[in-house]
Amino acid sequence: MPRFKTVHKGLKLLPVDFDKQLLPGSFEHALCYLVDHELDLSEFHARYRNDVEGAPAFDPAVLLKIVLLAYSRGIVSSRKM
Q: Is residue 44 part of a domain?
């Protein structure tokens, strides 16, 4: 007799829109706006050479947001980020 994983019908996955989680006027909202609309990240994009081979890379804008937010909170260790 085949064995199957038990089905947990009570579990639900709720989609989260992270843009709606940021409060307008907050530092986090301003940081996202600055990185997405004001900074020119084309130099970062030009250095990526994985369009044919290799795994997809993280968007440099996302990585920059993580680093800047961590620095603003006093976290300078990349291991803690």
A: yes
The tens digit of pLDDT for each residue in 9-62 reads: 777 778 888 888 899 999 999 999 999 999 999 998 888 887 777 788 888 999
Spatial distance between the Cα atoms of 19 and 23, rounded to a whole number of angstroms: 9
22 class by beta-carbon count within 10 Å (0-12 exposed, 13-18 middle, 19+ buried): middle
- The total of structural domains in the chain comes to 1
Contacts of 76 (CB under 8 A, 6+ apart): 70
φ, ψ of residue 40 in degrees (nearest 5): -95, 110
The answer to whether position 32 is within a domain reads yes
Rg over alpha carbons for the chain, rounded to the nearest Å, is: 19
CA distance 11 to 21: 23
